[in-house]
Structures are given as structure tokens and as C-alpha cells.
Amino acid sequence: MDDEASDGAPSQNALLGAALRAVRRARGMRAGEVALAMGLPLRTYQHFEEGAGPFDLDRIRLFADATDSDPFAIVVSIWLRSPEFAVRSIDSKPMVVMMLALRHFQEEMGEDLVLIEPRIWWGAFRRLFQDLDEHVRKRDLTAETWLDEQAGRLGLRSSFLPKGRRRGPS
């Protein structure tokens, strides 16, 4: 497997492998567990997790099912050159949600979809991401933080903060 593209950046195979490993580890799973859940021999799974072999969307979907992750985020993480995106998307599954919404939208629009210019798409996505950013920034985590601290004092597992904001294993 070629670990670098001609421009010195990680290759698509290396990025896919990094995303798959990161998702599996984030889920606390062993390679054998994922292989079993995917119905693959361990060595075949290991080859897949290395990013070796042909790019296989069906196998990525099986992996996502086995790890309860977002298959579209795994693919997008390659284009973004950010395996971390696949991990950050595990629970919220933003790309699955977007694909469901996009499928519905394109069915509703039909041939009129061609009338939407790139600058309109850009503006719509920019507004969407600004709204999401504002939602996250304005969220008051004071109560969740206090509850987590108090639970820890009782020897209980912290579970009040959203998964992405917790300290230590979730």
C-alpha cells in the first residue's frame, strides 16, 4: 500500500485505513470483533482496515453497521484528509442525516435541481454551518458539568455531559 500521494500527502488508502482504525478504537472494539460482525475472516478484515485492496463501499457500509458509525463520514473523511472527521461523526451521524435529507430534496426537486447554482448551494451550506456553530457555542453546559462533578464525588460514572464533551472514557 502506498502511504503517500504524489504531493506528499497521505494517500486515499492510508486515510481510509486511519479512519477505520480510529473508528474501531473509538468504539473500543478489537479487529476480531469487527471482522466477526462483518462476516469476514480476520486477515481479510485486517487487509481492509489497512486500506489495502480496492475501494469497496459495501464493505465500508458493513464496517459502519458493525461499529455503529457513519459510513458517509468515513468516505468524506478521505476527501477532507481528516480521519478524525469519521470519529467525530460516530454518534451524531451528520453525513447520514445529510444524505437522507438530500435524497428527499432531490426527489422533490427532480429536474429543477439543475437550476440551483453553486453559489446558492454555498450560501445555503454556509448559513447551515453558521447556525450549527451558534447552537454549539450558545449551549449552556453549566448544569451538565455540575452534575458530572457531583456524580464523581459519589463514585458514580460521569454521564451528564454530551459524549463529545466528556473527560476520559465514555
Description:
The protein is mainly α and 170 residues long. The longest helix is centred in the C-terminal third of the chain and has 21 residues, at 118-138. The chain contains nine helices and no strands.
Q: Report the structural category.
A: mainly alpha
Considering DSSP H and I runs of 4 or more, what fraction of the residues is helical? 55-70%
Distance between the termini: 34 Å
Low-confidence stretches: none
Q: What's the rounded overall pLDDT mean?
A: 89
Main sheet characteristics: none
Gyration radius from CA atoms, angstroms: 19 Å
Number of helices: 9
Q: What coarse outline follows from CA principal-axis ratios?
A: globular
Give a quick set of tags describing it.
single chain; 170 residues; mainly alpha; 9 helices; globular
Secondary structure: elements and pairs:
Elements: H1 12-26, H2 31-38, H3 42-49, H4 57-67, H5 71-80, H6 83-88, H7 94-109, H8 118-138, H9 142-153
Describe this structure in a few short sentences.
By secondary structure, this protein is mainly α.
